[in-house]
Amino acid sequence: MWLPWKVEGDDVVASFGSISTVHRELTLENLELNDSEVARGRAEAFRGPRPMLRERRGEVVFLEPDGAGGRREASSGGKRQSFLLGGAFWDSSLSFPLPLLGYQLLDFSWRGDQQLRLFLAGAVNDVAWSRPGTWEPRAQAFLQLVPFTESLWRGEHEVKGEALYLWRQKLRVGLARQLGGFRLGAEVGADVLHFSRTQETDPAFRLPKNTVETVAELQALWQRGTLLAGAQWERGERLSWRRWGFGERVEPSFSRTTVFARYQRTPWPLVRFSLGFDVATSQNADRFSRFSLGGLGGGAGFVGLPGGRVHADGLAVLRASLALPLAAGQRLEVTANAGWLRVRQEGQRAAPVSGVGVTLTRRGPWGTVLEASLGLPMVAPGPNRPVVQVVLLRPWR
């Protein structure tokens, strides 16, 4: 008789219009045939407080206590989670710490076969919807109520008098198609850009015109095991534009191309190692359409950099992270990234950039989860000031 000692599997999970790879590993130890203690151990597990899952074809459902010493499938299938949230974010692009206070919803079975994500934090808000299937329609909207400072740097020196406040609102709708290990997608949308002066803006500096930027994007993804690779092409067109600043040329349209890959591995139980790279280039991009690194959410997946400071016409970025448990209810993730940026500006050549970040997740009383992140720029223009984010989540309903 042959018995397996390890079972491994890799899945592609579609959630809220994006996809990720999930690696699962089951290791069997100390196997015994016809063990008389199996029934007793299972009954104790059913009565215990630990979460329990049942895997079925195409989904995983939670089993909740039934009040009689057994378990039953949760009425919501464990597919709906909602939280009250509070916290703050700060980097040098902000005049003050950005408060985050509001509500988060992750609903994987909204109205049956749809998915809905809400992140309503007051200063920044994000909504995403999708309906997974062979053909997957999706939509996303982003609302920014507090401006971020956009500054211009040449080498190690900030260009004086050209700092701006920028609000950017986004709306996207798209359609994706799954073909085996390939996923093809297309999106269209619009960004609303609004500019205003800071206290440091030169009076002679002409503000860019507030405008609407239409966007079209094509994307192709390929997954094999824990490797996810892809390419995307994006074209933007501003509906109205004019000369701005001190006479910068008018570039109402631009295009951007990105090739990327992500790889994950679990060298030990509950330990995850991730590695990824991005190579990107752009055509006719200006200060407001270049690739932006860092900031809230980590622009281009780059941690440790403040927002609104590092922009590039082209880039090559490598990142690595290691997540591991520290103790019961605690998890630590360490991330390092480095890259080479190219900016088409007179007197500006390609330059290196790097940053590191640490995130601690800790479970607290009443089901709360505290997540604290600290990022530090290592090689970047300007002062090496930290990027800090603290968020406390409390389950609701």
Task: Set out the fold topology.
Layout: E1 6-15, E2 18-27, H1 38-47, E3 52-56, E4 59-65, E5 71-73, E6 80-90, E7 98-110, E8 114-122, E9 124-130, E10 135-144, E11 148-150, E12 153-154, E13 157-158, E14 164-179, E15 182-197, E16 211-224, E17 227-238, E18 253-265, E19 272-283, E20 291-293, E21 310-312, E22 314-327, E23 330-342, E24 351-363, E25 369-379, E26 387-395
* Poorly predicted residue ranges: none
Instruction: Supply the number of helical segments.
Output: 1
Q: Can you give the helix content as a percent range?
A: under 10%
Regarding CATH, which class of the largest domain? Mainly Beta
| CATH-derived topology of the largest domain | Porin
Q: Please give the largest β-sheet.
A: 16 strands, antiparallel, barrel
Round the mean pLDDT to the nearest integer and report it. 87
Number of strands: 26
Protein name: Haemolysin activator HlyB C-terminal domain-containing protein
Organism: Thermoanaerobaculum aquaticum
Give a description of the structure:
It comes from Thermoanaerobaculum aquaticum. This is Haemolysin activator HlyB C-terminal domain-containing protein. It is a single chain. By secondary structure, the chain is mainly beta. The chain folds into 2 domains: 6-73, no CATH class; 80-395, Porin, CATH 2.40.160. Helix content is 3%, strand content 61%. It is built from 1 helix and 26 strands. Strand 18 and strand 19 (272-283) form a beta hairpin. The longest helix is centred in the first third of the chain and has 10 residues, at 38-47.
